[in-house]
Structures are given as C-alpha cells and as structure tokens.
C-alpha cells in the first residue's frame, strides 16, 4: 500500500539516493534541491517520501500556499518503475492535498518537452492549461 511519510532524521539520507528515470535531468529536480527548497520556503512546501509498505520508492514535494496547491516535484525511483506505483502515489498526493489542505484544484508544472509526464498526468484526469512559466506548462485537475 502506498503512503506518504514526512521526511525526518530516519529517512532523509535514503531520499538522496532516489533517481528519476528521465532522459533529461532538468525534467525533475533532485531530492537534495527539493529538500533545500522546502527548508527555504518553510511551511508552503511539504516534502514527503513515498513508500510501498515499508520500502521507500519515491519522493514528492508539494506546494500548499496561497490557495494554489501543486505537486511540484514527483519521482518514482528507477528500480520501481512500471509497477503502477506512480499512479498510486499520484492519487495519494491528490488525496493528501484535498484532505489535509482543502484543495479544490491541483496543479502540476510539467516541462513542455516532457511528453511522457504530460501523458502520465493526463491519464489521471489532469488537463493542459494556458499557463506556461519558465518552460513549464501547468496541468490542472479540478476536485469534486
């Protein structure tokens, strides 16, 4: 079962070893960068380790400020690809934003060139928006 767990003194080092299987490193920020960003921006960015039962399989950081919830960095480690874990983890992120932060809409910034990510999020109901910023298109999902 997929769960999101806070990054703490017991799991942060393991997060550093997670790697996204993307053809361009620029498509996904490193976990180190994401954790630094969460530290700088404080309560507006929430980083989580993604677990399948007791095994860490990925990482996500989510922006929860200014009534514009976003999944800003999402990765499933190379070793755990093609098992459906990404879909389950994305749904867990959406549920977290809805239930813990009152999200009525979730956004995901996706690199314009990263068509595989656009396809992944589209299968979850996200649609492309007209908002493009720094080479990223925002995909959006309205929640009931």
Helices and strands in order:
Blueprint: E1 2-6, H1 12-16, H2 31-41, E2 45-52, E3 55-63, E4 70-76, H3 85-101, E5 105-111, H4 115-123, E6 127-133, E7 136-142
Antiparallel strand pairs: 1-2, 2-3, 3-4, 5-7, 6-7
Structural class: alpha+beta
Describe the strand arrangement of the main beta sheet, using strand numbers: 1-2-3-4
From the structure provided, what is the oligomeric state, counting identical versus distinct chains?
A: single chain
Q: Rg from C-alpha positions? A: 14 Å
Q: What's the shape?
A: globular
Helix content: 25-40%
Largest sheet: 4 strands, antiparallel
pLDDT < 50 stretches: none
Mean pLDDT value: 92
Along the chain, the helix and strand elements come as EHHEEEHEHEE
How would you characterize this protein structure?
By secondary structure, the protein is an alpha+beta fold. It has 4 helices and 7 strands; from the N terminus they run E-H-H-E-E-E-H-E-H-E-E. Strands 1-2-3-4 form a 4-stranded antiparallel β-sheet, sandwiched between helices. A 3-stranded antiparallel β-sheet has the order 5-7-6.
Summarize the structure.
29% of the residues lie in helices and 35% in strands.
Brief descriptors of the model:
29% helix; alpha+beta; 3-stranded antiparallel β-sheet; globular; 4-stranded antiparallel β-sheet; 35% strand; 144 residues
């Amino acid at each position: 079962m997929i769960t999101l767990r806070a990054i703490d003194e017991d799991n942060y080092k393991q997060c550093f070893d997670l790697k996204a299987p993307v053809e361009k490193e620029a498509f996904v920020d490193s976990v180190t960068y994401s954790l630094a960003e969460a530290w700088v921006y404080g309560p507006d960015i929430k980083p989580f380790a993604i677990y399948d039962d007791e095994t860490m399989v990925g990482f996500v950081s989510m922006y929860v400020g200014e009534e514009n919830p976003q999944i800003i960095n999402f990765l499933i480690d190379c070793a755990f690809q093609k098992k459906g874990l990404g879909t389950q983890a994305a749904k867990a992120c959406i549920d977290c934003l809805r239930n813990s932060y009152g999200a009525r809409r979730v956004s995901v910034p996706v690199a314009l060139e990263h068509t595989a990510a656009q396809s992944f999020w589209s299968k979850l109901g996200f649609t492309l928006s007209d908002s493009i910023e720094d080479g990223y298109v925002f995909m959006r999902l309205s929640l009931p």
